[in-house]
Write a structure and sequence with these properties.
Blueprint (H helix, E strand, L loop, with lengths): L1 E2 L1 H12 L10 E2 L1 H13 L10 H9 L10 H12 L8 E6 L4 H13 L3 E6 L3 H10 L4 E7 L5 E9 L2 E2 L1 H18 L3 E7 L2 H4 L5 E7 L1 H6 L1 H16 L5
Parallel strand pairs: 3-4, 3-5, 5-9, 6-8
Antiparallel strand pairs: 1-2, 6-7, 6-9
Length: about 240
C-alpha cells in the first residue's frame, strides 16, 4: 500500500466532499481506493481507483462549499460514540502492552471485567500487530500501556497526524491524564497527538499511556487499574454533539 502525506491529503479532500476513505491515516488501502472510485464515477471519469492527472484536476476543481468542511471520518466516529451505551456493560475493550506488563494488563482486565466490560488483552511488541488484532475482534476502544524507564510521570497519546485527529481518542487521553497522575501522585506529562502505528492503524478510538518509573507502576498496578476504569466510565458517558 502507498503511504505518505500526499495520500493523507487525498483522503482529506475526498472526506470533505463526502466520500468515505475511512480514517485519514496516510495509507492508501481498500477504503481509500473505493472512495476514489466513487468520486471518479460521480464526476464522469473512469472509476479505476487510480489518482491520475484527470482525477487530480477534478479534485482541485471541486471544492467543498462550506468553510472548514467536516470530514466523513469525523462524523462517523462521533456518531458511533453517540450511539454506544452509556455504560461499560458489554463494551468490548482492548488493552495492550508491548512486553513486560502482562501482570499489570491482567489486573486492568480483571477490574474492567468486574464492571461488565468484554476485555481482550493483547501482548505483542509490534504496534501494527496489536492494531490488527484489535480490529479483528471489533474492539470499541483500545488502551495501550508502555513503560518509560527514563522519567517519572504519565503521558497519554491519541491518534493525531496527517491533518486529522481522533475526537474519541483525544477525549479518552484527556480523561486518562485526569485520573492516573492524580491516583499515583506523579507528574502529569500531558496529552499528545501522535501517529504511532497502533494509534494510526486501529479503526476505533485508541490511546497509549506511557508511565514511569517502572517499579512504581508495577507496584501500584491496582491503582492504575482503578484510574483506567474511572476514565473509561466517564468516557462512555460523554456526549458527542
Amino acid at each position: 500500500m502507498l503511504r505518505g502525506d500526499d495520500v493523507a491529503e487525498l483522503q482529506q479532500r475526498l472526506g470533505a466532499l463526502g466520500f468515505d476513505t475511512g480514517r485519514v491515516d496516510g495509507i492508501f488501502g481498500d477504503d481509500t481506493s473505493l472512495a476514489l472510485s466513487d468520486f471518479q464515477q460521480n464526476v464522469g471519469l473512469t472509476a479505476d481507483g487510480i489518482l491520475g492527472s484527470s482525477t487530480l484536476d477534478e479534485l482541485y476543481r471541486i471544492q467543498a462549499r462550506s468553510q472548514g468542511p467536516e470530514l466523513v471520518s469525523d462524523v462517523r466516529e462521533r456518531e458511533t460514540l453517540r450511539r454506544g451505551p452509556r455504560t461499560l456493560q458489554g463494551r468490548r475493550i482492548a488493552v495492550g502492552e508491548h512486553g513486560g506488563l502482562g501482570a499489570a494488563i491482567a489486573t486492568i482486565a480483571r477490574v474492567l471485567t468486574g464492571a461488565g466490560a468484554d476485555v481482550v488483552d493483547l501482548h505483542h511488541p509490534d504496534g501494527s500487530r496489536q492494531a490488527a488484532d484489535a480490529n479483528a475482534v471489533a474492539a470499541e476502544v483500545y488502551l495501550g500501556l508502555m513503560l518509560d524507564p527514563t522519567s517519572s510521570g504519565c503521558s497519554s497519546s491519541y491518534y493525531g497526524g496527517s491533518r486529522y485527529s481522533s475526537p474519541g481518542g483525544r477525549r479518552l487521553a484527556e480523561l486518562v491524564q485526569e485520573t492516573i497522575p492524580a491516583q499515583l501522585c506523579v507528574p502529569d506529562r500531558g496529552v499528545h497527538g501522535m501517529s504511532l502505528p497502533v494509534l494510526r492503524e486501529t479503526r476505533m478510538p485508541a490511546v497509549v499511556c506511557e508511565l514511569g518509573p517502572p517499579l512504581m507502576f508495577v507496584e501500584r498496578s491496582s491503582d492504575v487499574a482503578r484510574a483506567v476504569r474511572q476514565a473509561l466510565d466517564t468516557w462512555v458517558r460523554a456526549t458527542w454533539d
